[in-house]
Amino acid sequence: MVGRPAVPEVIWARPERAGRGPRPAFSRADIAAAAVRIADAEGLDAVSMRKVAAELGCGTMSLYNYVPRKEDLYELMFDAVSGGYEYPEPSGDWRADLVALAHQARAMMHRHTWAPRLMSPVYGFSPNALRYLEYALSCLDGVDARFGEKMELIAMVNGVVTTYVANEIATAERSRSLPWSEEQENAVRTGYLISQIATGKYPRMAAGFAEDPGPIDLDGVFDRALQRVLDSFDR
């Protein structure tokens, strides 16, 4: 296939345009933006070289001259949506700074619900991924830890965010697919749970719900999960 490399290649090391010849009709940013629009509207599985080419008004085969593989297209997409982070001057409170960054990541993934599926160390070399890592490391400048330990902490925080958001998105998508409302479903399931606890078979559950009947504060759960990860690193 035109332009597809026979050896491993990093898309960012590949020149966006040759030194000679006509100016390319599209930039990587154009291609990434088109793919992101498709994914936002129809989901990641809807993204294909054919659809992106149609969005741009070019032939599918010509697109391979810009992006050799679909995996490269995914990398361009993830880099594009990672370009919206704000990087204020670190406050000196590394915990607060990492929590603020985690909240930005959570918001980004909710704007682009396909993004959690592309969270991978493979895409850690893109320009915006490197900016993210450099900023996160700058928040940890005052922490007495080795570079590898700091990277592990950043990875754990990102893991909490990705797992939590992926569950939120899956729950929301399931609710949209049902022929009844989320409130109706919750009422039926809550009624069943109450009936089971009332049997006396689950005394610890009964005591727990008597102590804290809910509803669950999902934002609070998210923050507590982050704090527990940070607690494991604090010393």
Automatic annotation (TrEMBL):
<feature type="DNA-binding region" description="H-T-H motif">
    <location>
        <begin position="48"/>
        <end position="67"/>
    </location>
</feature>
<dbReference type="InterPro" id="IPR050109">
    <property type="entry name" value="HTH-type_TetR-like_transc_reg"/>
</dbReference>
<keyword id="KW-0238">DNA-binding</keyword>
<dbReference type="InterPro" id="IPR004111">
    <property type="entry name" value="Repressor_TetR_C"/>
</dbReference>
<dbReference type="InterPro" id="IPR009057">
    <property type="entry name" value="Homeodomain-like_sf"/>
</dbReference>
<keyword id="KW-0804">Transcription</keyword>
<dbReference type="GO" id="GO:0003700">
    <property type="term" value="F:DNA-binding transcription factor activity"/>
</dbReference>
<dbReference type="Pfam" id="PF00440">
    <property type="entry name" value="TetR_N"/>
</dbReference>
<protein>
    <submittedName>
        <fullName>Transcriptional regulator, TetR family</fullName>
    </submittedName>
</protein>
<keyword id="KW-0805">Transcription regulation</keyword>
<dbReference type="GO" id="GO:0045892">
    <property type="term" value="P:negative regulation of DNA-templated transcription"/>
</dbReference>
<dbReference type="InterPro" id="IPR036271">
    <property type="entry name" value="Tet_transcr_reg_TetR-rel_C_sf"/>
</dbReference>
<dbReference type="InterPro" id="IPR001647">
    <property type="entry name" value="HTH_TetR"/>
</dbReference>
<dbReference type="Pfam" id="PF02909">
    <property type="entry name" value="TetR_C_1"/>
</dbReference>
<feature type="domain" description="HTH tetR-type">
    <location>
        <begin position="25"/>
        <end position="85"/>
    </location>
</feature>
<dbReference type="GO" id="GO:0000976">
    <property type="term" value="F:transcription cis-regulatory region binding"/>
</dbReference>
